[in-house]
Structure formats: structure tokens, C-alpha cells
Amino acid sequence: MKTVVVTDTTAYLPKELREQYNIQYIPLSVIFGDEVYREELEIHVNDFYEMVKRSDRLPTTSQPSVGEFVELFEKLAKDYDAIVSVHLSSGISGTYQGAVSAGNMVEGIKVYPFDTETSCMVQGFYAIEAAKLAQQGAEPEQIVDRLEYLKKTEKAYFMADDLSHLQRGGRLSGAQALIGSLLQVKPLLHFVDTKIVPFEKIRTRKKAMKRITELLGEDANKGEPLQAVIIHANREDEAKEWMKELQQLYPNVEFMISYFGPVIGTHLGEGAMGLGWMKK
Questions:
Q1: CATH numbers and ranges of domains, the chain
Q2: Which parts of the chain are beta strand (E)?
Q3: pTM of the predicted model, to two decimals?
Q4: Portion of the chain with pLDDT greater than 70, in percent
Q5: Most buried one in 157, 199, 219, 241, CB count within 10 A?
Q6: Is residue 130 a contact partner of residue 151, using CB atoms and an 8 Å limit?
Q7: Which residues, listed in sequence order, are joined to residue 6 by a DSSP beta bridge?
Q8: What are the residues whose beta carbons fall under 8 Å from the beta carbon of 34, sequence distance 6 or more?
């Protein structure tokens, strides 16, 4: 069975990796006033943060329509027998459900939607693994089983400089407990059961990053090879410095740097920083 992998743009996969592994992209969009931009196609990360600074209102975001999914799936049906469709957490976006709905509508190809229950380049790790297996001729059911296994090894923590973006967009559960001290803390956040929830309250950005470093160490020091990604919202120099520190601490971990792109950056705000990892 010939299988192709689809993911959405919130994976923020570098173009060379998408081309290397034949990963198909479906875009989410950011909306500034009356202007709609498909991220990674019509608006890129550096332009986005500059536009936010110049805008008097924060942008909003939108997911791909079911029709867009159907159009893509029907196009792929001409060359493939199955699609593994890998998407950001269903708890913060309807994108995954859009893939499910479209998969039930198209004929001539079987669609296997997968909810990563996370986002950004951690989502990208799942898409790359799926695409590698597809290139090796694995059956789609085997690919999904492998992704489910990796999900048990995956962790991701992040912090936002300003939680108001997440609260306003309804992407942060359990925030009520933090409202009284929002200005004083840099809470660590993570995904639980597809939703973004607070993990720990931490007073400063430096201490928050140190705590994430410790959490990685709990897994890295078990000796198994891991792949990890530092994710930043327009803080590339800080991300590079952090990676140097992490590489010295955990030589058995393969690190890369990625970013919170326009859609996720809308909800986290500039200055956000995160770290995610899973078994290689």
C-alpha cells in the first residue's frame, strides 16, 4: 500500500525536511483585520512578529476548512492508497477533526488521522517518523501504532511571557488559579489530555528555563537516545545559547531549534520559549 503523510503548518517543518520525506502541508491562517494570510505560505515567522508590533489589534487564527482537506485528499488519491494525517492537538484546534471529517468524505483513499496532542516541531517529529516509515513501505496501521508508541515517550514544556494571549483565545485551561498572580509568575505550561494546562508556577524566566532543563534531564539521564527541539517566539539568540548549555549537559540528546510560527505565536505571544522531546 502506497502511503503519504500530511501535516498542518503548525508543525513548522523546514522546507528541506518536507521535501526529503515528501510530507504534504495544509495551512492554518492568521487574520489581521480583513486580511487573511496562510502561514508558512503567505506569511513567515519574522514578518509575523513585526506585523504584530505594528498592529493596534492582535491577529486571530483559523483552521483549514473541511473543503480544503477534501481537495488535498482527493488530489493525493490519484497517486496514493492511504494518508496518515498528523495534526496539532484537538484540544486547541479543530484541524484534526477537519481531517477526520474529510477522510470520511473522500473516496478512493483511506485516511488515518492522528492527533499528536501537541504542536510545533514536536508535532513535526511525529510527521517525520510517519513519513520515514511510509517511504520504507510500512502499512498505515503500523505507522499509527508507532506514533502511538512515541506519544508515550514525548514531553513538552513551554512558557509565555504574557498569558493574556492564551486566556483571551480560550487555549489555556485552569488559568483561573493563576489570575491573581499573572504579573509575578512565569508558569510552565504543558498539554494534558489535548489541553494546555499549567504545570508549575515559577517566578522568573531564568528559573523556568532551568526547571525545563531539569525535566529533560530526568529522561535524558536514563541513557536512551532522545531527540529534542528548542522552540522560541522571536528569541533565536536565546535559543542558541540554551542549546549550547543543553548539549553540554545531555550529550546523548540530539537537539535542534525551531520556532513558534504565526498561528501558535498568536496565542503565546512574542518571547515564549519551549522545549520538547521524545525517543529517537
A1: 3-28+63-151 (3.40.50.10170), 155-279 (3.30.1180.10)
A2: 3-8, 23-26, 29-32, 35-38, 60-62, 82-87, 110-115, 155-159, 188-192, 195-200, 226-232, 253-259, 273-279
A3: 0.94
A4: 92
A5: 157
A6: no
A7: 24, 85
A8: none
Q: Which pLDDT tens digit goes with each residue over 106-145?
A: 999 999 999 999 999 999 999 999 999 999 999 999 999 9
Are 209 and 272 a contacting pair, CB within 8 Å?
Answer: no
258 backbone φψ class: left, alpha, beta (φ>0; ψ -120 to 50):
beta
Q: Which cell numbers in the block locate residue 59?
A: 491577529
pLDDT digits (tens, 9 = 90+) for 187-237: 899 999 999 888 998 888 899 999 999 999 999 999 889 999 999 999 999
The residue written with cell numbers 494570510 in the block is 37
144 neighbors 87 (Cβ within 8 angstroms): no
- Dmax over CA atoms of the chain, in Å, equals 55
Closest CA to 146 of 279, 256, 275: 279
Cell 508556577 -> residue: 201
- Could you give the count of Cα atoms lying within 13 Å of 87 in the half-sphere of its Cβ? 27
CA distances from 111 to 73, 97, 108, 121, 125 (A): 8, 12, 10, 22, 20
- Crossing angle (nearest 10°) for helices 120-135 and 140-151: 150
Return the beta strands (E) in 233-272 as ranges: 253-259
pLDDT (0 to 100) of residue 176: 45
Whether the per-residue pLDDT at 62 is higher than 80: the answer is yes
The string of DSSP letters for 26-49 reads E--EEEETTEEEEBTTTB-HHHHH
Supply φ then ψ for residue 186, to 5 degrees: -120, 80
